[in-house]
Structures are given as structure tokens and as C-alpha cells.
Design a protein that fits this description.
The chain contains 24 helices and no strands. By secondary structure, it is mainly α.
Length: 449
């Protein structure tokens, strides 16, 4: 490992105290004082472990960290001259936390042995002090930086409970998944080892999709959001996790209010995630999608293809007068696939939904919840002509005074995209309704009542 590599890892040392102490290690190494470098490296490592435990206590009141430090203090009080606690603290950290793993622990045990050889004369060798060579010292520095010093201050398993409590409190001011993601990654996830994130995922699955108590009901939405965030971060690992423990993840509630959440979760990912569940769980979800409008809308993955899903939703629009789709829902439906064909099909669904309004009030409601929020999706002539044709055919929409402003906004948008010679008179009712010398500013679109 060359000097540049060591300095690169050194920059990642979390605690400023450790960085300062580590400079002594590097100075000794650079002048060839390898014995001193190894002795100091061990002391710096033990101090860094203590700092990490104190960090868990100060920031998260972690009970495991409290227990470990108290136990070590008790040992020091019994025998203040003994250094046995130094290895003991590593053993406790290995057993009770995620700060180090077994490989790290073995590397640190070897460092301690090298430290003892460097610090104590060996009688059988004529009271000679052991002097490690440059390569051994360099390897010890590298292993220690990679195993402990350059890693973020990870957390113990008990921190999962802290995360859940924090999420429960934070949901009052974190209103979008992007906000939740930024908050939880900065505060926790970017410092957690993968194993802990997967344990968190497993627990959240149970809380969101199986259990039903006051806390679960209160936190179900944000817990579901967290499951989506974790799956986006580690999709392949979580797919493997579900596949390897299908029975656990297929043990879901059959109550509609909880099934809705798992359907929304599954709608964010590829269909093969749904297929990982047992046939029994898949059957429950398929049946709920037939009975509940929201589940039907988000359950695209229960169909053989997106075209089959499209036809199911279209049929529901034509037969179910209470079927209601909000602005937020349309944004999600667009994200079910990123191919151009699907975008065209969603545009058609928006058009049919708007133009099938059975009353003037419903038409106005759908204008505000669907057409105006999604107006920028009508971004080529084919989509615009399809919408205009259906508006023209829909008599209840045309000649309605309270839709006039909405249609004027649409026309102004269309004129930016369509060729100048485009003939609006082909759509006489829409044309008559929207003709005026000066059109309102489309930037005011979202300010409509």
C-alpha cells in the first residue's frame, strides 16, 4: 500500500481525535520507527472504538454501547494497571454491535500481539525488543484503517428500534418519500452495514404488512415508504432475502387496509418481486385487486401484461361511476413502465377518464385532478389530437362555462407544440369555447380554483 493510499483512507477517519492520534502513527512509520508505529496504532484503535461507543450513546442512547462501556469501567476500577480490558472491549463490541465483524476482530487480535511483541522485551531472546519490518507495519496500518478507523460509526442492532421511533416522530414533518429518503439516509442508512439494513427491512415488512395494533396503524404509511427506500437501495439483496425466506414474506394480512400498502409497495418494482411470494399470498393480492378500486389501480403486476392491465382499468372507468383517480395516482401509473408505448396508453387512459365524466361537476373535478396536472404529458400532435377528438365527442364537457378556462389553458399549451397551420376548427365546440384574442398565462395553471 503506497503513501497515497494510506492518506486516502486517513481522510475517511470519522473522529477528529482519531485523525490527530493517527498522525503519530504515520510520522513513526515514515521515519522507519516501525516498533513505535505499531504500539501507537494499537492505542489509537482502542481509543477509536471507545469514541464510537460514546458516539452511539450521545447520539442515540444505544443501550448496548452503555452496557459495554460500563462493564469496561468496572473492570478498570477493579484493576487500574491492567490492560486486559483492551481486548475485552473488542470482544464485547464483536458480540453486541455491528462495529466490527469476525474478520476485523482477528485482524485486531493480530495487531495486539504485534503490539505486545514491540512493547515488551522477550527473555528468551536476550531481552531483545521485536522490530517489525516495513511490510508488516504497512499491512497492519492498512488492515486497521480498513477494518475500523476509516469506517463510519456503525450501529448496534438496538439502533433499529431507535430508527423506528425516530421515523414515527419524523412523519409529522416528512411528507414525501424524497424527504424521508434524504433524512433517513443522512441520519442512519449511509452509516449502517448492509446486514443491519436487511434486518430493518425484515422487521418493517412485518410491521407494515402483517401486524395490526395502534403503533402499526399509525406508522404504516411511513414504514411502507421505508420499505420502498430500502428496496431501491439494495434491490438484488432484498430480492434474494425474500426468495430465501418465502414463507416469512408471504405471511401477510388478508385485510384490505393492509393489503393496499403491500400492493402500493409491489407496484414500484418489477413484476418478478410479486412472483417471489407464495401462490397463497399472490392469490390474496389478486382477489383484493378485483374488489378494491385503489388496489385495482396499483395492481398492474397481477396481470399478464400492461395491455391487460390497461383494458381492466379502462373497463372499470366505463362501468364504475365512483372510480376516482387523483393527481398523485397518475404520476405513479406513468412510472409503472418507462417505455414509450406505456406512456401513450396512460395518456389514453387520462383522456378516457376525463371525457367519460357523467356530470358537469365530475368533469370539473377531473379537469383539476387529472387534465391540468398532467397537461405537459400531452407533448406531441398524436396525443393532442386524441384528446381533442374525445373532448369533442363528449357533449357534457363541451359548452360548459366552468370548463372554459381549463380548455383555454390547454389550447395555449397545444399551440406551443402543434404546427402553426393546425386547424382547430376541426373541433368546432372546443374551438368556439376557447377562442379569444389573448390567452391567460399558463404559469398560473396551478392557481385555478
Amino acid at each position: 500500500m503506497d503513501k497515497f493510499d494510506i492518506e486516502s483512507l486517513q481522510e475517511n477517519i470519522h473522529f477528529k481525535e482519531t485523525k490527530l492520534y493517527f498522525q503519530e502513527v504515520m510520522m513513526a512509520y515514515q521515519i522507519g520507527a516501525y516498533r513505535s508505529a505499531v504500539v501507537t496504532l494499537w492505542s489509537v484503535t482502542v481509543c477509536d472504538i471507545v469514541l464510537r461507543l460514546q458516539h452511539l450513546i450521545d447520539l442515540y442512547n444505544d443501550p448496548n454501547a452503555v452496557q459495554i462501556l460500563q462493564k469496561i469501567k468496572d473492570e478498570q476500577n477493579k484493576n487500574s494497571k491492567s490492560s486486559a480490558w483492551e481486548l475485552q472491549i473488542l470482544e464485547e463490541v464483536l458480540i453486541q454491535t455491528q462495529l466490527i465483524n469476525h474478520a476485523d476482530f482477528e485482524n485486531l487480535k493480530y495487531l495486539q500481539k504485534q503490539r505486545h511483541l514491540c512493547a515488551h522485551p522477550i527473555l528468551s531472546d536476550g531481552l531483545q525488543l521485536y522490530k517489525p519490518n516495513k511490510e508488516t507495519t504497512r499491512a497492519l496500518i492498512r488492515n486497521t484503517l480498513e477494518s475500523v478507523l476509516s469506517k463510519p460509526p456503525f450501529y448496534t442492532d438496538k439502533t433499529i428500534l431507535t430508527i423506528l421511533e425516530d421515523l414515527s416522530e419524523a412523519q409529522n414533518f416528512l411528507t414525501t418519500r424524497d424527504q424521508i429518503k434524504r433524512y433517513i439516509e443522512d441520519r442512519y442508512l449511509n452509516r449502517l452495514p448492509l446486514e443491519v439494513e436487511l434486518k430493518l427491512f425484515r422487521l418493517l415488512w412485518k410491521l407494515a404488512f402483517r401486524l395490526d395494533n395502534d403503533d402499526c396503524r399509525k406508522n404504516r404509511l411511513i414504514n411502507c415508504q421505508m420499505l420502498i427506500i430500502l428496496t431501491e437501495r439494495h434491490s438484488s439483496e432484498i430480492y434474494n432475502l425474500i426468495s430465501d425466506d418465502k414463507e416469512y414474506y408471504s405471511n401477510i394480512s388478508n385485510l384490505i387496509n393492509k393489503i393496499r400498502y403491500i400492493i402500493i409497495y409491489l407496484s414500484k418494482f418489477k413484476k418478478n418481486l410479486f412472483c417471489l411470494l407464495s401462490q397463497g399470498a399472490q392469490t390474496i393480492i389478486r382477489e383484493i385487486c378485483k374488489k378494491d378500486d385503489e388496489c385495482l389501480l396499483y395492481g398492474w403486476f397481477v396481470h399478464d401484461s400492461l395491455t391487460d392491465y390497461y383494458n381492466t382499468v379502462l373497463n372499470c372507468m366505463n362501468t364504475n361511476l365512483s372510480f376516482f383517480i387523483e393527481e398523485y395516482d397518475w404520476k405513479n401509473v406513468f412510472n409503472f413502465s418507462d417505455n414509450i408505448e406505456w406512456e401513450m396508453q396512460v395518456n389514453q387512459l387520462i383522456t378516457f377518464y376525463y371525457c367519460s365524466a357523467s356530470s358537469n361537476d365530475i368533469a370539473l373535478e377531473r379537469s383539476n385532478s387529472t387534465i391540468l396536472p398532467c397537461f405537459d404529458k400531452f407533448n406531441n400532435q398524436e396525443k393532442i389530437e386524441f384528446l381533442l377528438t374525445n373532448i369533442e365527442l363528449s357533449y357534457q364537457l363541451c359548452n360548459k362555462e366552468n370548463l372554459k378556462r381549463s380548455h383555454q389553458f390547454l389550447r395555449k399549451h397545444f399551440e406551443k407544440i402543434l404546427p402553426k397551420e393546425f386547424d382547430f376548427t376541426v373541433y368546432p365546440q372546443f374551438n368556439a369555447q376557447t377562442l379569444q384574442e389573448t390567452f391567460p398565462d399558463i404559469s398560473q395553471l396551478n392557481k385555478l380554483d
